[in-house]
């Protein structure tokens, strides 16, 4: 009997402490974590085990045996279940965090980009929107968390971390957000509480949804009246606990919209023992403004105070004063959120002034950086004399204002997206965290104001997007011209997990880094102008536009429906359901199918009898498509033109690959090459037999997958291995296996006149060992037969079987930052301008990172977007890559870099351009190491001229008279 009871105890223990018999180092799956969360929600103790005393000397005692004063005393709180502790070790996940007793360094979690702190904030959010989340029942577990101890710890934590000037400067946004969530002064995040209460009520009462949307989207003090009126109409049918919940919401809203308590602010200010510009600005505000001041006056004054606090925060010597002034800034921000909603701009000049004011507040609250604000401040409120301005000026203000709104939202994502993505895999509610952060910031009101300006400019310019029945379309702007018809797929989540269909039109929050062919795309975060995805879209005439996250959510109503989608040359966007298409629009696709021109890979001049490894110095641009692909040929040309800025290199020509493909393919009774050609011959035979394209594609992909694996396992000839080893030592002054190198695929299908092929095949980063390099050569050859590469070329090439890979081998340069330049203004169309995108570390900008993007002219450098990529890679000499995290408080490119870029572009235009087409723009990849410029690649920049010249696209592009004068008194409505 005793034995049976023991078994029962063990079974119950394992249920409460899920998965504890597994090895601690084994990472838990999302499904396992989701199951664990469910058990915590139903457990009266949640993730906690029992209450204990935790003493200063590191010992633990029972609840009735307090820590003696002689050993420094201690604190009492819950300990964690073994399953929760295990999850920390295996997945670095912290549920039900108890702050008291933690070391500040442990909680700050610098090495993981402050992940533990951010998880604490996400946990607080989930608790507010899901009735306690993992503490659903444990929130009533008496003694588990001592609020006084938590607040004491929080205050000590901030006083500790705020001693570091660099930490404040580099993480101002994160610090201010954590002040709203980490208890330290009896404070509450009232704005978040208001949104979470309204969300929970709308889930139980669908008729309350419209009011909830109003509270979330356009919060105003009048919302209190809306809730009270709702209560009056529903009072007779609501249960007592439901009435209590609505009354609690009203109480929260009244607290949120309470007038400024100047006395409380004055008392808080008086506790700061140091005086400087920051305290003076707060003091003057409290002295000069009263409750009788207008919302415009108060909003403008607070924006300036927030700006001054941020720019003078490190003037304080003592961190306790830094904490106090930051707490004051949080209170002032809450007031600004309310007052700016009450500030109504009636005409253009009011609108421009309000946008300028709120943009200043985004700097003051950490949503953009000081250098970013300095870069665009003069463009926000341009010099306007008299009572009129021009449409050109208004368009310029609108563009930069839209940019600021986007920068603010990307700041939130840059700080929290990694943790949100992790949590969303096992807790979908976490996805709302970023949206909640954006809505609780001045970004919401700034976005509304910019939309009002956009609506007026669209009206004055006769630019009216026609995107189904969306209410607010002014945030939508075209990036690449083109038109498409297909099924609309709205992806609200991680795009990397989506299997795309080439016939569909996709709306992404962020474009995936290795997008397969699609009919059209729209994105909330456009990435950067020169990423592989953007260049492919531009090259192939795939319509591409940017939209707001609100637009994305509204378009979910059309998910799965067939739509027509077009982007004009002027950025005008049309999206309509199939039934609303005109006859002209229907004809576009019947004609396209009949006259679709595929591109042929030229093979008439290819030389497959060159079987030895070539030194890149012996290769020139004229060899492109003959001996090797354009990467190697053009870099060889660059080595000749810029010997000090281009590394040494080796080229494995087409002929080496082709000779290896003549070997017998195991298990097939034929060579690798015959297997490949037979696959395409069989596909053509299937077409003759009227087999549907989906079946043909499935057959080809199955065969190519088999070929891909076989090439990776293919033996290399002894003659080739001997050749590569000798050539490697000669070129790089080190034996194979001692010098880290890049292996870059370089096919004859890249950089054709009408097809770029950018980023379709494999590049191997910083590999060192002989084994890895030899295997890598085969991996790069095989990458030409991956699903993504095949689908792009199958869609646009008439002879995809004639794709031959060569390989460019270059030594790794551990650059400080790297990126891409297009030798023309992509947005402006000006051939004399330069479009540049740069990210920190190696491999910058090409994979769609949120890069620092600039328009560089002869005399200026205009910031189009700052970098918002939190991580980057460096290339250690031992091989592989190492990930680092960064901040955003300084630009990537300096003035010397920008001047070097101008000189490089001028030289390319004068030398490379003259060898072919003087008007040809180029796509150049390069980087900087200790301010020295290193060139890695140059290729022609290919745009889709057919999309730009389409009669239909021209017909829907309005003719805008940018010199038209507009009175500044023009009403917004």
Automatic annotation (TrEMBL):
Pathway: Carbohydrate biosynthesis; gluconeogenesis. It comes from the Bacteria. The keyword Transferase applies. Keywords: ATP-binding, Kinase, Magnesium, Metal-binding, Nucleotide-binding, Pyruvate, Transferase. It is an enzyme of class 2 (transferase). SUPFAM superfamilies: Glutathione synthetase ATP-binding domain-like. The keyword Transferase applies. Its cofactor is Mg(2+). Catalyzes the phosphorylation of pyruvate to phosphoenolpyruvate. This is Phosphoenolpyruvate synthase. It comes from Bizionia paragorgiae.
């Amino acid at each position: 009997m005793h034995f049976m009871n023991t078994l029962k105890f063990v079974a119950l223990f394992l249920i409460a402490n899920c998965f504890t018999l597994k090895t601690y180092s084994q990472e838990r799956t999302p499904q396992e974590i989701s199951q664990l969360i469910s058990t915590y929600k139903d457990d009266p103790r949640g993730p906690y085990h029992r209450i204990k005393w935790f003493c200063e000397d590191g010992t633990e005692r029972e609840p009735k045996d307090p820590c003696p004063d002689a050993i420094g005393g201690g604190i009492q709180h819950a300990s964690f279940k073994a399953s929760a502790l295990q999850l920390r070790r295996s997945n670095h996940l912290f549920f039900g965090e108890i702050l008291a007793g933690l070391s500040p360094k442990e909680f700050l979690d610098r090495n993981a980009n402050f992940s533990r702190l951010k998880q604490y904030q996400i946990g607080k959010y989930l608790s507010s929107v899901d009735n306690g989340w993992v503490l659903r029942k444990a929130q009533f577990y008496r003694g588990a968390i001592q609020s006084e101890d938590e607040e004491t710890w929080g205050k000590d934590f901030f006083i500790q971390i705020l001693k570091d000037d660099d930490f404040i400067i580099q993480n101002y946004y994160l610090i201010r957000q954590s002040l709203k969530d980490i208890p330290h002064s009896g404070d509450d995040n009232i704005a978040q509480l208001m949104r979470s209460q309204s969300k929970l009520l709308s889930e139980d009462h669908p008729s309350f949804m419209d009011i909830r949307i109003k509270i979330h989207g356009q919060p105003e003090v009048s919302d209190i009246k809306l809730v009270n009126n709702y209560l009056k109409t529903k009072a007779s049918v609501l249960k007592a606990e439901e009435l209590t919940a609505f009354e609690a919401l009203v109480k929260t809203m009244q607290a949120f919209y309470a007038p400024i308590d100047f006395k409380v602010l004055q008392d808080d200010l008086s506790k700061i023992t140091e005086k400087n510009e920051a305290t003076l600005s707060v003091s003057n505000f409290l002295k000069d403004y009263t409750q009788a001041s207008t919302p415009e006056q108060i909003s403008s004054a607070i924006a300036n105070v927030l700006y001054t606090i941020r720019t003078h925060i490190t003037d304080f010597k003592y961190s306790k004063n830094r904490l106090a002034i930051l707490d004051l800034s949080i209170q002032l921000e809450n007031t600004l959120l309310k007052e700016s909603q009450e500030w109504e701009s009636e005409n253009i000049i009011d609108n421009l002034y309000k946008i300028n004011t709120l943009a200043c507040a985004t700097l003051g609250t950490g949503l953009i950086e000081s250098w970013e604000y300095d870069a665009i401040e003069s463009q926000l409120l341009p010099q306007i004399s008299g009572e009129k301005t021009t449409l050109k000026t208004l368009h310029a203000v609108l563009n930069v204002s839209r940019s600021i709104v986007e920068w603010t939202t990307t700041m939130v994502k840059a700080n929290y997206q990694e943790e949100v993505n992790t949590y969303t895999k096992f807790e979908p509610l976490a996805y709302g965290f970023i949206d909640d952060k954006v809505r609780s910031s001045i970004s919401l009101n700034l976005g509304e104001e910019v939309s009002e300006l956009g609506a007026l400019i669209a009206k004055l310019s006769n630019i009216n997007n026609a995107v189904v029945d969306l209410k607010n379309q002014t945030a939508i702007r075209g990036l690449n011209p083109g038109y498409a018809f297909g099924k609309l797929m709205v992806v609200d989540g991680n795009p990397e997990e989506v299997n795309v269909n080439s016939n569909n039109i996709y709306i992404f929050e962020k474009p995936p880094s290795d997008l397969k062919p699609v009919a059209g795309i729209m994105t909330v975060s456009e990435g950067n102008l020169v990423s592989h995805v953007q260049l492919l879209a531009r090259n192939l005439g795939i319509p591409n536009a940017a939209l707001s996250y609100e637009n994305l959510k509204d378009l979910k109503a059309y998910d799965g429906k067939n739509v027509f989608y077009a982007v004009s040359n002027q950025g005008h966007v049309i999206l309509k359901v199939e039934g609303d298409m005109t006859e002209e629009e229907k004809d576009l696709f019947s004609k396209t199918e009949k006259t679709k021109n595929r591109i042929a890979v030229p093979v008439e001049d290819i030389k497959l009898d060159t079987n030895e490894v070539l030194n890149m110095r012996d290769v020139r641009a004229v060899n492109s498509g003959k001996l090797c692909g354009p990467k190697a040929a053009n870099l060889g040309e660059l080595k000749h033109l810029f010997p000090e800025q281009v590394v040494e290199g080796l080229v494995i020509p087409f002929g080496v690959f082709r000779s290896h493909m003549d070997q017998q393919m195991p298990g097939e009774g034929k060579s690798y090459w015959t297997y490949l050609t037979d696959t395409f011959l069989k596909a053509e035979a299937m077409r003759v037999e009227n087999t549907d394209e989906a079946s043909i594609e499935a057959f080809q992909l199955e065969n190519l997958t088999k070929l891909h694996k076989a090439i990776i396992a293919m033996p290399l000839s002894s003659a080739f291995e001997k050749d590569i080893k000798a050539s490697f030592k000669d070129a790089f002054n080190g034996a194979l296996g001692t010098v880290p190198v890049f292996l870059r695929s370089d096919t004859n299908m890249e950089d054709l006149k009408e097809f770029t092929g950018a980023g379709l095949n494999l590049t191997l980063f910083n590999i060192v060992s002989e084994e890895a390099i030899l295997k890598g050569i085969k991996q790069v050859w095989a990458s030409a037969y991956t699903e993504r590469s095949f689908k792009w070329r199958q869609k646009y090439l008439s002879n995809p079987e004639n794709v031959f890979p060569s390989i460019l081998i270059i030594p790794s340069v551990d650059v400080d930052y790297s990126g891409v330049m297009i030798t023309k203004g992509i947005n402006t169309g000006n051939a004399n301008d330069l479009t540049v995108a740069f990210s920190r570390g190696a491999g910058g900008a090409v994979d769609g990172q949120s890069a620092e993007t600039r328009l560089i002219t002869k005399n200026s450098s205009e910031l189009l977007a700052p970098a918002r990529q939190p991580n980057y890679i460096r290339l250690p000499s031992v091989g592989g890559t190492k990930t680092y995290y960064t901040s955003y408080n300084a630009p990537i490119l300096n003035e010397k870099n920008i001047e070097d870029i101008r000189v490089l572009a001028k030289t390319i235009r004068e030398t490379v351009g003259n060898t072919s087409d003087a008007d040809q723009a180029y796509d150049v990849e390069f980087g900087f190491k200790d301010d020295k410029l290193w060139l890695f690649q140059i290729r022609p920049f290919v745009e889709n001229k057919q999309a730009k010249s389409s009669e239909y696209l021209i017909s829907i592009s309005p003719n805008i008279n940018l010199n038209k004068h507009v009175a500044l008194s023009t009403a917004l409505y």
